[in-house]
Write a structure and sequence with these properties.
The complex is a heterodimer of chains A (221) and B (191). The two termini of chain A are 51 Å apart. Chain A is rod-shaped and about 100 Å long. In chain A, helix 5 packs antiparallel against helix 6. Chain A has 2 domains: 8-124, 2-Layer Sandwich (Beta-Lactamase), CATH 3.30.450.20; 129-219. The longest helix of chain A has 44 residues, at 126-169. A 5-stranded antiparallel sheet of chain A has the order 2-1-5-4-3. Helix content of chain A is 50%, strand content 18%. Chain A is of the alpha+beta class. By secondary structure, chain B is an alpha/beta fold. Chain B has a single domain, classed as Rossmann fold (3-Layer(aba) Sandwich). Chain B is 43% helix and 19% strand. Chain B has 8 helices and 7 strands. In chain B, helix 3 links the parallel strand 2 (42-47) and strand 3. The radius of gyration of chain B is 16 Å and the shape is globular. The two termini of chain B are 26 Å apart. The chains are: A alpha+beta (221), B alpha/beta (191). The A-B interface holds A 143-144, 147-148, 151-152, 154-155, 157-159, 162, 166, 171-172, 175-176, 178-180, 182-183, 186-187, 190-191, 194, 209, 211, 213-214, 217 and B 22-23, 25-26, 49-51, 53-54, 57, 61, 75-76, 78-82, 123, 125-126, 128-130, 132-134, 159, 161-166, 169-170.
């Protein structure tokens, strides 16, 4: 069996304070990576980071952070080179299966034993994203219902009043009035069918018809 | 004329999405029709809202002769009426038949005499009874592209707030202007 590689927290934390820190590091419900900013190398990862990425701690230790948890190129590290503040920024992590996992990322600098490290924390927001998608689907359903029912009905109401005027005016014959009444009857039937179809789709949770632009509009900042 | 020369010419056509309160859409139709004729354009009305026979009488009451415009009628057959053939009218089985609607637009535009032409689409809101907004947006994009390539103007009538923000933003990228009928009133030249 290969020897377990010690992480930063295994090497540097001694005594009761170290035990407390280590317990918190292992049990906290936030995925944490500790990076050596000089080498841009992962020096520790907690168990939640393992479950978030699907990679074991041993698989992560010693890996470069660039191209793994950060898309930045060499010399363009947002923290060490560009001095950006990374606080609850929405990012994606690619897990071991190649799936993109949406996360909130925060990077903080910390000093361990006189050396500076980066503590990167990740909160999985997959459920939040799914809830947002469901909300967008519901709003898209309501919006489409409004478009395909309410506005046409308002216009039809006006048309019916106009029809009453046409019937009284003597300028329009019975066929003119009949055609318009049949058209509106067919339109009403179509509106009912549209609403039934939209309701069915909403109940079935079909979200394919929600255009990505609608989601982009809905989630605009 | 080669493609490059054509592309270098300034476009004379204008595409406009005109919005009104649902109550005012019929009045907006008459106003736009009068303005198209006054600007020297030949109008082509694409109606998914009124049968040609009724439109003819409505326009005649406003002093607009049937000789002055062309019509694509997508509702007479849909409402069980008689499709009286005529040189200036084409019938489409129903408003959801977008293929035939597109063909009719192409054919009638070719058939119209040379000179300035303008399509009036009445209305985008009523089209949405028959097709989902996603398909309506694609169809309108197709029509707008056809008009731009043919240097034909177009006015698309729509009930205010009868378009979702996405269609409105897409339409605003297709058309040159979005106008509010109630704000434009009767004074502004739309073409």
């Amino acid at each position: 069996m290969p020897e377990k590689i010690p992480g930063l927290t295994d090497r540097t934390l001694n005594g009761p304070a170290g035990d407390i820190f280590r317990t918190i590091f292992l049990r906290i419900q936030t995925a944490i990576l500790i990076i050596d900013p000089a080498a841009h190398e992962i020096v520790d990862a907690n168990p939640l980071m393992e479950s978030l990425t699907g990679l074991s701690r041993d698989q992560m230790l010693g890996k470069g952070c660039q191209g793994f948890v950060c898309p930045a190129k060499c010399g363009e590290c947002p923290v060490t080179d560009l001095h950006k503040n990374i606080l609850n920024i929405e990012r994606e992590i690619i897990n071991a299966k190649g799936e993109r996992v949406p996360v909130l990322k925060t990077v903080a600098k910390a000093d361990f034993g006189g050396k500076e490290y980066l503590v990167e924390s990740y909160v999985d927001i997959t459920d939040h994203k799914k809830a947002g998608e469901r909300q967008a689907a519901l709003i898209a359903f309501l919006s489409e219902s409004l478009l395909r029912a309410k506005k046409p009905l308002e216009m039809m109401q006006k048309d019916f009043l106009q029809l009453a005027g046409q019937a009284m005016s003597g300028d329009y014959d019975a066929e003119d009035i009949r055609m318009q009444l049949v058209m509106h009857a067919n339109n009403l039937h179509q509106i009912v069918m549209n609403l039934e179809e939209l309701q069915k789709k909403a109940l079935e949770g079909q979200q394919d018809e929600i255009p990505p632009e609608f989601k982009a509009f809905f989630f605009r900042k | 004329m080669d493609a490059q020369t054509h592309a270098d010419e300034p476009a004379e056509s204008m595409l406009c999405l005109m919005l009104a309160q649902p109550d005012n859409v019929p009045e907006m139709n008459l106003l736009v029709m009068k303005k198209i004729i006054a600007s020297g354009c030949t109008p082509l009305i694409v109606s998914v809202n009124k049968p040609n026979k009724v439109l003819t009488k409505m326009y005649a009451k406003e002093g607009i002769s049937p000789d002055a415009y062309y019509v694509i009628d997508a509702v007479t057959q849909y409402s069980g009426g008689e499709c009286t053939p005529g040189p200036k009218v084409k019938y489409v089985t129903n408003p959801s038949n977008l293929t035939d609607l597109g063909i009719a637009i192409t054919e009638l535009l070719k058939q119209m005499p040379a000179g300035k032409k303008c399509i009036m689409f009445d209305s985008v809101s009523m089209l949405l009874i028959h097709i989902p907004s996603v398909n309506a947006s694609k169809f309108l994009h197709f029509v707008v592209n056809k008009l731009k390539l043919s240097d034909v103007s177009g006015v698309f009538l729509c009930a205010e707030k009868g378009l979702d923000p996405v269609i409105l933003s897409q339409m605003s990228s297709f058309v040159d202007h979005i106008m509010d009928y109630e704000k434009v009133g009767t004074t502004t030249c739309i073409l």
